[in-house]
Amino acid sequence: MTLISPIFIILLCLRISGVPLLEKRADEKWGG
């Protein structure tokens, strides 16, 4: 899990930065 966690976070960051719509949904879901 020590290897999967960082990779998973990086993928999430790339997807969020690449897709503003997902970021807006995440802000509403997680509160910022």
Kindly describe this structure:
By secondary structure, this protein is mainly alpha-helical. It has one domain. It is 81% helix and 0% strand. The protein is built from two helices and no strands. Helix 1 crosses helix 2. The longest helix is centred in the middle third of the chain and has 15 residues, at 4-18.
Radius of gyration: 11 Å
Largest sheet: none
The string of secondary-structure elements, in order, is HH
Measured as a percent range, the helix fraction is over 70%
End-to-end distance, in Å?
Answer: 26 Å
Summed over residues and divided by their number, the pLDDT gives a mean of 72
The count of domains is 1
Sheet-strand content, in percent, reads under 5%
Number of helices: 2
Beta-strand segment tally: 0
Low-pLDDT residue spans? none
Structural class: mainly alpha
Can you lay out the helices and strands and say which pair or pack?
Blueprint: H1 4-18, H2 20-30
